[in-house]
Amino acid sequence: MTRDDLIAMLREQTPACGPARSALIAGADFVVWDGLVPANRHAGVFRRRMHHSLKRGHTIDGLADSVDILLRAGEEPLRTGSIDAVDRSSWFLIFLNSTATIVVACCGGRRPTTMESADTPE
Fold this sequence. Notes:
The chain has 122 residues and is of the alpha+beta class. The chain is 36% helix and 24% strand. Strands 1, 2, 3, 4 and 5 form a five-stranded antiparallel beta sheet that branches. Strand 4 and strand 5 form a beta hairpin. Helix 1 runs antiparallel to helix 2 and helix 3 runs antiparallel to helix 4. The longest helix is centred in the middle third of the chain and has 17 residues. 32% of the residues are buried. The C terminus is likely disordered.
């Protein structure tokens, strides 16, 4: 897959797709892994990550939409990939069909600037 292929595949699947596409256009690094995992397994993992992130006060663009898309995809085998901005200020996780020809979902955004514990009292 080329950079231009991935740019073309990132449409409006989730709110994170536009910023991910912009990062690629700006020269972001990207990788798509070979392994296949059922979409609903990804959904369970990322639903837990979403709840954990919200407890910490962090939001991840497109995560809730991605979880919904992954749940609807059921047992469909998906590939995953990542996009890392040139300046490392943002990252994106992409979910693609088994042949890596369609982006099914995308989430990510700016990296948190602090790593506070969810258990820290306010």
